[in-house]
Write a structure and sequence with these properties.
Distance between the termini of chain A: 10 Å
Strand order of the largest sheet of chain A: 6-3-7-2-8-1-10-9
Distance between the termini of chain B: 27 Å
Strand content of chain B: under 5%
Oligomer: heterodimer
CATH class of chain B: Mainly Alpha
Helix content of chain A: 25-40%
Largest sheet of chain A: 8 strands, mixed
CATH topology of chain B: Protocatechuate 4,5-dioxygenase, Chain A
Number of strands of chain B: 0
Structural class of chain B: mainly alpha
Number of helices of chain B: 7
Shape of chain B: globular
Number of domains of chain A: 1
Largest interface: A-B, 30 and 31 residues
Helix content of chain B: 55-70%
Structural class of chain A: alpha/beta
Order of helices and strands of chain A: EHHEEEHEHEHEHEHHHHEEH
Number of strands of chain A: 10
């Protein structure tokens, strides 16, 4: 059928692992925004959810790092981290290999994407799913963009990856939801964990809500590293969602720095466009 | 130049319970499978998370390893801070370039 939902959210492991240590005055409205995101997702009646994530060396290593990869396994296991540390129980999450395969075939028309029939989910996917599909019952199509270290795919290519995903979703009969998840500015896994460049975050999200392709993709990696930390490379996941909704506008439901989560807690929705709605009717 | 091997060892430990079991039984036997420098092997033997950070292990690999080795979140952050004081800035890998080359130094 088409793309029926598009959203973005943060995925810091602290959101589950250290939720009790966040200031309730910020945590509660953030979690309320994530609930709003979940209700919007459920209202879209998706057959599957595609998660564009920034994997953290759980499956892909520097011996063979794909710039882009989409999963097509029957099932996935997660979290790869110590479940007690992440506070998410280890479980099996259903995949949808046939739909994955058809989407990969379409994406390949425009982007050279790798595929994976084995994939262990890390916090980058498990944390968002724990908020959006807490029963872990909606079939998942995982997608990864290497955001961990250079050589990194250009931001313009991340936008193009999103456009290719959109074409693929429009070509299948199923209802596909899309969630992009990554940090904005953050310095995770360093002694500066908790440092957040709030004005940079707000400027980036403003560009995202306007779906301003030029403004979203003009950051150099040197600028991002300087102003948004090495975690800022993960904006590729959010840019891809904008690419999937080219010409549409987004809305930020919540964005506030939450240092114990190592990032701003944020949630956003983007219109998926009249074209897809017409097809849905 | 064996930072790659050091990170690969920790990556494989992080994701494979069988490698974890082997490491728990006889960590020396696992260490010999990778071309590590003496300094890297010693940091692993001592579970010296801070030193591994200074040697350039990517933080996303190290964070999960630290949790597996039993460090709480605060202990893990503190280990990196103390290592920066003791050993100076991060020597290799991506994190050496963070914060203008200070590797996340406060």
């Amino acid at each position: 059928m088409s793309l029926v939902f598009a959203g973005i959210m943060s995925h810091g492991p602290g959101m589950t692992a250290r939720a009790d240590r966040a200031d309730p005055a910020v945590r509660e409205p953030f979690f309320a925004a994530l609930k709003e995101l979940r209700l919007a997702l459920e209202a879209s009646r998706p057959d599957a959810i595609m998660v564009i994530a920034a994997e953290h060396f759980a499956n892909f290593f520097m011996n063979n790092m794909p710039a882009y990869c989409i999963g097509m396994a029957e099932e996935y296991e997660g979290p790869i981290e110590d479940p007690e540390w992440l506070r998410i129980e280890r479980r099996t999450i259903p995949g949808t290999p046939d739909l994955s395969r058809r989407i990969i075939d379409e994406v390949m028309e425009r982007v050279d994407v790798a595929y994976a029939e084995e994939w262990k989910f890390d916090h980058g996917i498990m944390v968002p799913l724990s908020f959006l599909t807490p029963g872990f019952d909606l079939p998942v199509i995982p997608a990864n963009i290497n955001c961990q270290g250079p050589p990194l795919t250009p931001l313009s290519r991340a936008y193009e990856f999103g456009r290719a995903i959109r074409s693929a979703c429009d070509a299948v009969p199923e209802r596909v939801a899309l969630i992009g998840t990554g940090g904005i500015s953050h310095w995770p896994a360093t002694p500066n964990s908790g440092k957040i460049n709030e004005s940079w975050d707000r400027e980036f999200l403003d560009r995202w809500t306007r779906n301003d392709r030029e403004a979203l993709t003009c950051y150099s990696d040197e600028e991002t590293l300087r102003d948004a930390g090495q975690g800022g490379f993960e904006i590729r996941t959010l840019i891809a969602v904008a690419g999937a909704c080219e010409g549409e506008r987004g809305e930020i439901l919540f964005c506030e720095p939450i240092p114990i989560f190592a990032t701003s807690g944020f949630a956003g929705l983007m219109q998926v466009g009249a074209g897809s709605l017409a097809k849905a009717a | 130049m064996s930072l790659y091997a050091l990170q690969k060892l920790i990556y494989e430990l992080n994701r494979d319970p069988a490698v974890q079991d082997a490491y728990t039984r006889d960590h020396e036997a696992v260490l010999t499978r990778y071309r590590l420098t003496d300094e890297e092997a010693e940091a692993l033997r001592r579970d010296d998370i801070g030193k591994l950070y200074i040697l350039g292990v990517n933080g996303q690999i190290l964070m999960h390893f630290a949790a597996w080795r039993g460090l709480s979140w605060d202990e893990y952050i503190q280990a990196m801070k103390e290592a920066l004081v003791e050993h100076g800035q991060v020597r290799g890998g991506l994190y050496a370039a963070v914060d203008g080359g200070r590797g996340g130094a406060l």
